[in-house]
Amino acid sequence: MHQGITLNQFFNEQWHQQPEIDVDLLALVDDMARACKRIAHAVSRGPLRNDLGNAGSENVQGEQQKKLDLIANDIMLRCHQWTGRVAALASEEMETIHPVADAAKRGKYLLVFDPLDGSTNIDVNLSIGTIFSVLPAPADRSQISEQDFLQPGRNQLCAGYAIYGPSTVLVLTLRQGVHSFVLDEDIGEFILFDADHRIPEQCCEFAINSARQRLWEGPVQRYIADCIAGSEGPQRKDYTMRWVGAMVADAHRVLSRGGIFLYPRNPYSADKPGKLRLLYEANPLALLVEQAGGRATTGTEPVLDVQPHKLHQRIPLILGSADEVARVEAYHRTDPGDG
Ligand code: AHG
Ligand code: MN
Ligand code: MN
Q: Which CATH superfamily hosts domain 7-194?
């Protein structure tokens, strides 16, 4: 445990050791920490301010927006759009991209985010979080378009999430390992918790919404059946199952103590080949998991290699401890058939 090193101090030290680190990116991380503190505050006061429940609107994906989805989206916009670091923003809660209005003040990054992941948990006081991804903006920023955001996850310069649970925790990567911080509310600072987080290898937990079993692709059906067979099955170990219903919280558990998270391909839905969104849910988590020594796949290819073709594109996502994810990939290779 590091004694009281703040997020700023940590990155200042990193910058002294590696002067090639982009200081503008560190400043963006600082903006993000501020945004997450404000969202944590809004979330924790939600019931007292009559901020629970639906906003009465739908997002572009036809999902009910919660009041706190919109409040968190607004906080993200206010904390990032006037800093001079960001050229344009995109969010789960905004149909189209949001370029910074003054083209002369556009910075060198594109920011994509899910302002509140796990919205259905808000009203029942369970963990939720904010997920973000930073991509390079094009050299010519006079005309930013959706096309500029359609970059594979390997291009991410930074990715992370904040989780609003028993503590507020910020987990992020600048492609040099994974660092986690815990919010000390008394001093309003994120304090270093783990400077170089590695995902544990030993795994006996899986996370999947089994109510949708009839919609899983064949290899996932067979993998989960073998997990459930436990020590008497081919895996030769007993598993347990956990499902928070907020990917950010499920993935945080998997990053913290190992295991696997699956929101697999639905072979019966051509237009929705998964539930989770590529740019602001799957990609940032995939980069974090890879940087922590784990794997993230669609089943057939690394998530980070997928070329996006639209802003709110959905994708199958399987991530976690490297050996366990590799096992699911092997099920896809040896018997890819569905049903
Ligand atoms: P969001 O609240 O941002 O729309 O995301 C919800 C996602 C994800 O967080 C979670 O893993 C998944 O939906 C849960 O889906 P089910 O309702 O199928 O369990
Ligand atoms: Mn989400
Ligand atoms: Mn969301």
A: Fructose-1,6-Bisphosphatase, subunit A, domain 1 (3.30.540.10)
Instruction: Provide the CATH topology of domain 205-334.
Output: D-Maltodextrin-Binding Protein; domain 2 (3.40.190)
pLDDT digits (tens, 9 = 90+) for 152-176: 999 999 999 999 999 999 999 999 9
| pTM across the whole model | 0.96
Domains 7-194 and 205-334 belong to one CATH topology: no
Rounded-to-integer distance, Cα 243 and Cα 224, Å: 14
Query: Which own/partner contact pairs does 176-179 have at CB distance under 8 Å and 24+ positions apart?
Result: 176/14, 176/18, 176/291, 177/291, 177/292, 178/255, 178/288, 178/291, 178/292, 179/10
Cα–Cα distance, 140 to 135 (Å, whole number): 15
Question: 106: CA distance to ligand 3 center in Å?
Answer: 26
Strand partners, 84: none
pLDDT in tens, 245-269: 999 999 999 999 999 999 999 988 8
* Confidence band of 338 (pLDDT split at 50, 70, 90): low
Counting ligand 1 atoms within 8 A of each CB, the residue from 63, 64, 117, 126 with the most, and so the one to mutate, is 117
Give residues (CB < 6 A) around ligand 1.
63, 92, 114, 117-119, 209, 245-247, 263, 275
Domain spans in the chain, listed from the N-terminal domain onward:
7-194, 205-334
